[in-house]
């Protein structure tokens, strides 16, 4: 449709007396002619072994499912395993599941998140439905035409369920994973109402999509009102503690700006400090395996990076989300740039929220 629109634009230029010989219109005309010849000649060439029709169909299917906003099929579904780890990781896994379903031109059956973090101890996982954390209808409304969520009540059970075993191990490369997905765009696999992926958590799947596609999915995630209110309570507490600390160390209200801004809340920035013992062991092993040195960050590096954020002016509260019980370096409150007021998560007095809503612990970590 874009090519026809561009061609029409040239036609309008001609009708309105503009230059018929413009380089732009000539170029567009050549593109349209080439596309036309491709559509006419490709089917003929396929009959002579020039082009494999199955491959051509796959290209069209892949283009439809990845590059268009014409809508996702609502009669074919993808089912994924329970999503685990912290909420940020679960959001990434969810987006990856959505984009996998999009590639297959299927609706993603509403998955289960995890309220607990025991991702290696399956029996201790606490599943929590997606719609208990994020607004289901709001998601489908915001992501309409890009990805689609469905419920199990939408199933007609007209066919059996096909189980797609995700590969694992070092021999299972991103290329093999993509080739596998391409196969499931075509029949006989595409004929199944439900394709159920088994064997791996979505966060561990290979990645095939640009960051902008993940960002688009994230923009559609809106917390349910109950959890959003709890998150707002944590934000209010952050600012309250920040004001108290600011006054103790000598920041005056006038430091926040002009008279018109005196009533503005204390600004804050949330920092997820991954310097705990368990993470450092994991990331150092990963660095050795990949022969890189860019995964682990020390406390000093994090402090410097936050201090270099453009436009960050003091006094600003720095909310530190870190597991104190797993720290080797207990000096996380020292060394911050003047004007930055560090506040530890466990000093906020919001443990009641964490206990009432286990997943809100993860939510507050990502405020």
Automatic annotation (TrEMBL):
Ranges that cross the membrane: 28-51
Family annotation (Gene3D superfamilies): 3.40.50.11350
Xref: Pfam families: O-FucT (PF10250)
Top-rank lineage group of the source organism: Eukaryota
Single biological process term from Gene Ontology: fucose metabolic process
Keywords (A to Z) from UniProt: Carbohydrate metabolism, Fucose metabolism, Glycosyltransferase, Membrane, Transferase, Transmembrane, Transmembrane helix
GO MF annotations, alphabetized: glycosyltransferase activity
Protein family (similarity comment): Belongs to the glycosyltransferase GT106 family.
Protein name: O-fucosyltransferase family protein
Lineage of the organism: Eukaryota, Viridiplantae, Streptophyta, Embryophyta, Tracheophyta
């Amino acid at each position: 449709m874009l090519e026809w629109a561009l061609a029409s634009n040239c036609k309008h230029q001609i009708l309105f007396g503009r230059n018929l010989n413009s380089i732009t219109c000539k170029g567009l005309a050549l593109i349209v002619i080439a596309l036309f010849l491709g559509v006419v000649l490709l089917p003929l060439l396929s009959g002579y072994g020039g082009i494999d029709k199955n491959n051509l169909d796959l290209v069209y299917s892949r283009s439809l499912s990845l590059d268009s906003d014409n809508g996702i099929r609502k009669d074919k579904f993808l089912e994924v395993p329970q999503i685990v780890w912290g909420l940020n990781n679960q959001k990434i896994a969810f987006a990856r599941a959505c984009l996998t379903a999009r590639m297959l031109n299927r609706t993603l059956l509403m998955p289960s998140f995890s309220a607990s973090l025991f991702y290696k101890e399956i029996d201790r996982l606490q599943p929590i439905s997606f719609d208990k954390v994020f607004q289901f209808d709001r998601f489908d409304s915001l992501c309409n035409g890009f990805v689609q969520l469905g419920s199990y009540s939408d199933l007609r059970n007209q066919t059996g369920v096909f189980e797609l075993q995700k590969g694992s191990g070092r021999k299972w490369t991103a290329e093999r994973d993509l080739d596998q997905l391409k196969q499931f765009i075509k029949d006989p696999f595409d004929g199944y109402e439900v394709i159920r992926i088994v064997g791996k958590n979505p966060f561990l799947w290979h990645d095939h999509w640009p960051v902008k596609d993940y960002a688009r999915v994230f923009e559609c995630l809106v917390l349910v009102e109950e959890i959003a209110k709890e998150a707002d309570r944590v934000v209010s507490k952050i600012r309250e503690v920040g004001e108290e600390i600011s006054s103790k160390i000598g920041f005056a209200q006038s430091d926040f700006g002009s008279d018109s801004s005196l009533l503005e809340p204390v600004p804050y920035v949330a920092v997820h400090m991954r310097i705990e013992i368990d993470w450092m062991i994991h990331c150092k092993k990963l660095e050795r395996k990949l022969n890189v040195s860019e995964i682990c960050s020390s406390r000093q590096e994090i402090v410097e990076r936050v201090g270099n954020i453009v436009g960050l002016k003091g006094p600003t509260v720095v909310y530190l989300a870190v597991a104190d019980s797993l720290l080797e370096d207990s000096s996380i409150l020292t060394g911050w740039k003047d004007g930055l007021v560090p506040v530890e998560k466990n000093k906020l007095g919001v443990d009641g929220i964490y206990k009432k809503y286990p997943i809100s612990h993860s939510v507050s970590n990502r405020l």
